[in-house]
Design a protein that fits this description.
This protein has 118 residues and is mainly alpha-helical. It contains six helices and three strands, in the order βαααββααα. Strands 1-3-2 form a three-stranded antiparallel β-sheet. Helix 4 runs parallel beside helix 6. The longest helix has 21 residues.
Amino acid sequence: MARPPLKYKRKVKPSKVLPPDLIRGFYEKDVDTLKEVSRWLDKNGLTILFTLEEAYGDERVYLDNDGYIYIGTDKIPKKDWLKKCIHRYSPGLLIQATDEKWVSKKMFAMLKKLADVV
């Protein structure tokens, strides 16, 4: 379960990546279920998020020690990818980011803030 922390990470809704039979145990913090969740994420998490177009392939999906599911990478995602992700949350926010010429780090910070609402 414990892995070295990634520099750029954001939370993922458990319902997006976990099968229904693991969700209840995940929220109840059942130790055996959390081990299974960790294995499930290692095997299937990135594939599922890639299929949902929420990952671009250079990332890792994992269960952190704080009990949340994260997707992250050591390198900041490309600006075009960040724009696409921000557009999913709010097209108006993307317009603001474009008009104000946000840099990649600011876009990622906003995306992380939006994902932390999970």
